Amino acid sequence: MTEQIGQSANPIEIRSSQGDSLIINPLGGKVKLELGNVLILTSVVRGDGKTGETHPCTPIFGPDKKNLYGLIQHGKTRTEQLEVKKDSENGAIVTHNITDSPDRYPSGVRVEQQLSIKDGRFDFKMTHTNGGTIPAPVNSGEHLYFAAPQGYKGVSLNGKDITALIEADTAIPLEAATIIEIPGLPKLRLNQKGFNYVMLWVGKNAEGVRDGNYVCIEPVEGNPSDSYFGSLESIIKPGNSRTATFTISVEKAAV
């Protein structure tokens, strides 16, 4: 039996006996995460004064650069009330009908996120279904705000220092398996299928000073820096679905 969280509900928390915690806010599907009592995905007040917290980006990641559909940056889902159902002891399902730019973007697209925690691991699955009659482009992602207790400098992916890439707001291909090392956190493993790129980013204040207590490592289906959105590859045909997944886990030390 599922427990439905109403439109005006407060955030819900799922905990495991291993010290894992997943908090989901129905407003925008925003997420906080602890694994083994260590804060992994955080909430911060950025240098620009905005609150930063992990959230979905759909039906577009980044801006609608060519103004194909009149979509806002990252889509409206992250600002709307979503339907949350706690479907098991360890997880929840978050669903939403995408209503962005109704006069231009195809109607009938629905997004479902399945989130769960267990044994030091966070599982995330995002499925888009086109229940309408018109092909719809989607380039979805999850804007992950990783805690960075010692700052973003020195962060590495698979042993490569990505400090300069973070400062340049860069999108790069994302391997199927990636070791993430953030100073002050345990070593993490991110496995993905369908999230083929990752956006690297950190905000800054009005004086241009970059924030120092988080880093954004954001899995996304297609490269947001090129023409993926609107391409044939991005299209979901009527009656079809597309799914992308990732997991974040604490990498166990070799014995």
Explain what the structure shows.
By secondary structure, the protein is mostly beta strands. It has one domain: Distorted Sandwich (Beta-galactosidase, Chain A, domain 5). It has one helix spanning 163-167; strands at residues 3-5, 12-15, 21-25, 30-35, 38-41, 43-45, 51-53, 55-57, 83-86, 91-97, 109-118, 121-130, 136-137, 141-143, 145-147, 156-157, 160-161, 170-173, 177-181, 188-193, 197-201, 214-220, 235-236, 241-250.
Number of discrete domains? 1
H/E element sequence: EEEEEEEEEEEEEEEEEHEEEEEEE
What is the architecture at the second tier of CATH?
Distorted Sandwich
State the helical fraction. under 10%
End-to-end C-alpha gap: 41 Å
Return the structural class.
mainly beta
- Residue share in β-strands: 35-45%
Query: If strands are numbered along the chain, what order do they take across the biggest sheet?
Result: 1-9-10-11-12-24-20-19-16-17
Oligomer: single chain
The backbone outline, from C-alpha atoms, is globular
CATH level 1 class label: Mainly Beta
Uncertain stretches of 5 or more adjacent residues: 1-8
Question: Tally of extended strands?
Answer: 24
| Biggest β-sheet strands, sense, barrel | 10 strands, antiparallel
Q: Any idea of the CATH topology?
A: Beta-galactosidase, Chain A, domain 5
Mean pLDDT across the residues is 93
Rg from alpha-carbon coordinates: 18 Å
